[in-house]
């Protein structure tokens, strides 16, 4: 059954005890002490490190080796199998029950279908838990058994990432690996039970923020989320090392009409939408970069020439 999530706008007045934070385009008001805000702020550096590792940068540029993508899918299968097994065991736990969405979120079965696409019907005999993935899986089982509240960190880190940046990776992989447009091999990225990714993420963050947690427990969840990013980096590093031994030709992302396809020279930093986002954040490098890219386009050149002409006219009139 498809889940449709809608969110009612909340008051955007200043809240007592903290500054008002507006999220997305809605007037959703959050406090800095809300768990979702603490996670977003507290994992910023870890998130940046993960995004800037060589494996992820190559992925975003469409430089993907099919063998590495297959191995990465296998690693995810073992991670999600562990996480969803522990979530299932603790589904009645007071800190897990509010964010228990198996139909909407669970990825194990989707990953199994992807592995069958890449390896065939006997895929289970061809994949195994790698040395780089084992510490991640072991940690998930450890917290699930001893400290279930920390599963909130692993769930947040994985699922919210899948619903955000994961959708960009899906488009890049589909074109770079020339995967079928019908979605075979990419079931992991398809959340058929969620109507609106944005709406569901708002619901999920809201549920997290309503958990009855003291300040110390919130900090432990943030620390565990950073630890989860570290485990992800271990998996990426292992894939990078394997990639160095594989002579397979890198796939070409090609050209098309999506966000991933407009990257010039395969460099995401040259994408005008990415530059615009960074410019809006006040980064001077990207402000200049955005201006230079716009000036390369004929319509922008014509508009600039018109502005210069108007300015010159006003200047001449003023001097006269």
From TrEMBL:
Pfam entry (one): Heme_oxygenase
Signal peptide start and end residues: none
BP-aspect Gene Ontology terms: heme catabolic process; heme oxidation; response to oxidative stress
Record key words, sorted: Heme, Iron, Membrane, Metal-binding, Oxidoreductase, Transmembrane, Transmembrane helix
Domain of life: Eukaryota
CDD domains given in the database record: HemeO
TM ranges: 302-319
Keyword Cell wall biogenesis/degradation: no
EC supergroup of this enzyme: oxidoreductase
Annotated EC: 1.14.14.18
Similarity comment: family membership: Belongs to the heme oxygenase family.
Name of the protein this chain belongs to: heme oxygenase (biliverdin-producing)
Organism field: Seriola dumerili (Greater amberjack)
């Amino acid at each position: 059954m498809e889940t449709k999530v809608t969110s009612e706008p909340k008051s955007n007045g200043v809240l007592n005890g903290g500054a008002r934070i507006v999220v997305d385009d809605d007037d959703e008001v959050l406090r800095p002490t809300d768990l979702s805000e603490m996670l977003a702020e507290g994992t910023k550096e870890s998130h940046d490190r993960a995004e800037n590792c060589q494996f992820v940068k190559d992925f975003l540029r469409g430089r993907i080796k099919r063998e590495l993508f297959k191995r990465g899918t296998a690693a995810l299968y073992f991670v999600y199998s562990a996480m969803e097994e522990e979530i299932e065991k603790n589904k009645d736990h007071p800190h897990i029950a509010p964010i228990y969405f198996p139909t909407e979120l669970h990825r194990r079965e989707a990953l199994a279908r992807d592995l069958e696409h890449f390896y065939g019907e006997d895929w289970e005999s061809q994949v195994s838990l790698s040395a780089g993935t084992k510490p991640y899986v072991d940690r998930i089982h450890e917290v699930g058994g001893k400290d279930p509240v920390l599963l909130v960190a692993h769930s947040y880190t994985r699922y919210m990432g899948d619903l955000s940046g994961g959708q960009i990776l899906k488009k890049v992989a589909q074109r770079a690996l020339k995967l079928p447009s019908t979605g075979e091999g990419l079931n992991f990225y398809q959340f058929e039970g969620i109507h609106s990714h944005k709406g569901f993420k708002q619901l999920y963050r809201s549920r997290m923020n309503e958990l009855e947690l003291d300040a110390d427990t919130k900090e432990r969840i943030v620390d565990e989320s950073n630890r989860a990013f570290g485990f992800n980096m271990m998996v990426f590093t292992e894939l990078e090392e394997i990639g160095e031994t594989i002579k397979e030709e890198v796939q070409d992302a090609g050209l098309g009409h999506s966000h991933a396809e407009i990257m010039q020279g395969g460099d995401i930093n040259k994408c005008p939408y990415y530059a615009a986002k960074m410019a809006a954040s006040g980064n001077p490098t990207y402000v200049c970069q955005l201006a230079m890219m716009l000036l390369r386009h004929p319509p922008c050149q014509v508009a600039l020439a018109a502005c210069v002409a108007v300015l010159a006219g006003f200047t001449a009139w003023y001097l006269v």
